[in-house]
Amino acid sequence: MYARMLDAARLLEQGAFTVRYLQIDSAAYRPLVQQIRQRNYRLLALVARFQEGFSWIESCWSGGNHLLILDLRLASGELIYPDIADLYPVAQRMQRSIFDLHGLQVFHQTGQAVDTRPWLNHGWSPECFPLRPDFDVDVEWQDRAYQFVRVQGAGIHEVAVGPVHAGTIEPGHFRFSVVGEKVLRLEQRLGYCHRGVDYLLSQTPLLEAAPLAARCCGDSTVAYSWAWAMAVEQALGVTPPSRAAGIRALLLERERVAQHLLDLGALAQDAGWSLPMSWLSRLREDWLRSQQHWCGHRLMMDMIVPGGCVRDIDAETGQRWLDESIQLMQNVETIFSRFEEHGGLQDRLMGAGYLSPALAQRLGVCGLVGRASGQEMDVRHDVRYEPYRSVRPGKQVLTQGDVAARVQIRFAELFASLFLIGQLYEHLLEGPVLQPLPEIPALPTQGYGWVEGWRGEILCVLHQDQGKILRAHLHDPSWQNWPALEYAILDNIIADFPLINKSFNLAYAGHDL
Description:
Helix content: 25-40%
Low-confidence stretches: none
Number of helices: 16
Oligomer: single chain
Strand order of the largest sheet: 1-2-5-4-3
Distance between the termini: 37 Å
Number of strands: 15
Largest sheet: 5 strands, mixed
Strand content: 15-25%
């Protein structure tokens, strides 16, 4: 019966990619998730909302080349829903976040223990839920103790790192249980960067919210802007111009290149070899200055908006970017050979922070970290909306799963992006870059955006009614990958944590929205 329900999911019309939608009740939720697991779907996000007098839990699943949406409507007045963390471990932190923001609590039919500790709530009242319709903004702040899991035994001690760090890094707390220097367990506590973005979006008119979406995570502003624009376009029934789609992809690859240059230098430095940081930082600085020359912003913020792009790429800029890509390719090839030849560096990288393909699949790890552990998903390659139907990016996948593999993936994706920039520019179609938006529909609509940022899949969920945002959520791939870091550090020495952590390089602010 449940298999037939999945097969009968309604196809949402309009949009860059296929979205199948199914509204369900609590009784069907876990059986359907079990069916989904048998079909190897991956959980992308859990999003709660209050609408039409009911509480809703919207689960978003990747079927490879399409999205599946299970929209669970709870009975009137009901505030509990079934736990699925035993089926999909990545759901646990999302469920804890939903409780902090909405007061909707999970339960497990078998009596299995449910983690009820706060996740995003670092001090507001336990009875206060910011995304409920009756939320009172005048909430009193109070200190709240957090119970880390204690590991006991002979010779075990705890090392607390953060939330204030020695370097320029966002705040996050890491609690290590160690014997000597070997790590037996790592427990993370995030949420220090929580800025109430979901609430702010709900207070912002639909057509004025793009700048807020662009600022969710600075190193992925292009990807976030594109995901937001894609969701708004589906909600309003708009198809952006083909030239705009090509420019969006071109900017996305430039963002990917800039971040990989930064990360590769930082990884070498964390391994004790500081020279590549200077080389790659200089190359990245030239790359960013070229972007600033084009649009006035080093990170190209606010260049992608619903309906297309705000600026075209003229012939002079296009040629300069092509020349830069060729020159950068030559420089990076030289640096890559230095990485490969450096025995001391390779000794630090190989075997450190191992994440097996089986565990990566179980945890739903995505993006470059997933591809270093055998997970092949890449939205650009597999979903193939415009412009990826005509320009198909290569897919870089390894199975070694250690820091060395994640460094190799970065180099491979860097080379692939530089090549793809040339292809995208060559295939840019003539025409406008911005499509005027139509009148907002009289009835409520929903839309979804799905973009492969440099870190992994960014998902946008949007519900609007006559220009008012009922619920919007931008989901960073760090939600999927932070739990995997707790496993990758096991049996490594604590001094290798900065190196392993940097090889993941996950977002704090993008995660803590």
